[in-house]
Amino acid sequence: MKDHRIFNFNPGPAALPLPVLEEIQDNFLNFAGTGMSITEVSHRSPAFDEVINDAVARIRRLLDLDDRFKVLFMQGGASLQFALIPMNFLAAGDTADYVNTGTWSTKAIKEAQVLGKSVRVAASSEDRDFAYIPKGIEYRPDAAFVHITSNNTIKGTQWAKFPDTGGAPLVADMSSDILSRRFDASGFGLIYAGAQKNIGPAGVCLAIIRDDMLAKVPDDLPSMLKYTTYAAKNSLYNTPPCFAIYTVQLVLKWLEETVGGLDKMEAANREKAETLYGFIDGSGFYRGTADVDSRSMMNVTFRLPSEALEKKFVAEALENDLGGLKGHRSVGGCRASIYNPMPKEGVEALVDFMKEFERKNG
Ligand SMILES: *Cc1c(COP(=O)(O)O)cnc(C)c1O
User: Fold this and answer.
1) Over the chain, what is the mean pLDDT?
2) Whole-model pTM above 0.85?
3) Among 147, 241, 265, 307, whose Cα sits 20 to 30 Å from the Cα of 224?
4) pLDDT for 212
């Protein structure tokens, strides 16, 4: 029982690859020959330098980042980024375009407004409860930046293609789909992602920032609230979340060396999503909540015929070692988060359970 594991469909913190957890366990008492745990070593030690530099190098390789980009590890989660973005990149007299595609975009907009910054909501899908990604959006050519949420963890939608903003830098919250698929990073001024969905544990937030954005950062901000502070010190201005960064490094190593890179990861993610959506679409019992062309490969949201059945479904699934299938408390229903670490076998086990549940309750 001690090592009993279930298929973990939690939205975040979420499943990590088993080989990564095992590697942490194996090296926990004596990290890299130091005779200390990674949780005990100095962030200024050569052993930790190796960890953070390797993590940065792997992200640069996986996303094909050119020299204009800096890879940063920050704290405060994606939620602090919501505030840092307008503080750092929205000067008086400037306006930013935000696309509102759900709970997290709404929060990002709110933080900019709290700071008294000028924000235009360029498009919103709120009219249909955020079930789709708006199309044909017109962005202001003079927007300081265009902010999007690439994957909407709660509503189960995802940008299939990133928008052409006509020159304004894209700023994207990729918390729940970073490194799940290939994309061209060159049009992005800033990409940020709380690690706890797709690439690691809670406690660290990845930020990938282009040099033209760094040049906009004003001097009159506290050090910890400026991207330039992190960029100048390789994220080591103060003590970073060493253990979380180490775990991210191991996940990146797994992604490159075990999975075989981003194209293989994307193919596996597509296959998992198609398996699950294909089954839902063929069933008259389960119903997907997102528009087909806006569906997320990461968070599959669906309903059953009644709330009572949904409750029973979530409870019985857990009895069958399928955990974390309850929808977000704000929307109800069910949600299967099938991030990078979820193996195909987990999705197949879920589909088998769904078939059986429908047979008994349909
Ligand atoms: C979970 C999530 C957040 C919030 O992240 P924190 O790290 O908890 O602040 C923001 N955006 C998206 C898309 C998320 O999925």
Assistant:
1) 97
2) yes
3) 147
4) 97
